[in-house]
Design a protein that fits this description.
single chain; 91 residues; alpha/beta; four-stranded parallel beta sheet
Length: 91
């Protein structure tokens, strides 16, 4: 068991397929462990959700049915985050 605290990173995305892979790859390359990555897709109409889902178990994906804005997406991610520390990143 790690002595390091769990860090949850909430990534909000709305039609951000162009940058989402780079954002997730950067987060998953961090040396801190343990790390929880949560993507909140705010009703994107592009391939953002599919890109996030392709990462499998290292990334938890939540989806809003309608676009509610970045603050609501952050709140959704925060509500399910398990970390002692919470970080936010926009795709």
């Amino acid at each position: 068991m790690s002595d390091s605290p769990l860090v949850s990173c909430v990534v909000t995305v709305f039609n951000g397929e162009r940058y989402l892979r780079q954002a997730l790859d950067s987060l998953l390359a961090q040396t801190h462990s343990p790390l929880q990555v949560i993507v909140v897709d705010d009703a994107s109409t592009d391939e953002s959700r599919a890109i996030a889902m392709a990462y499998g178990s290292p990334v938890r994906v939540l989806t809003h049915a309608v676009n509610r804005g970045p603050a609501a997406a952050r709140a959704t991610g925060f509500a399910v985050a398990d970390g002692e520390y919470i970080a936010f990143s926009d795709a």
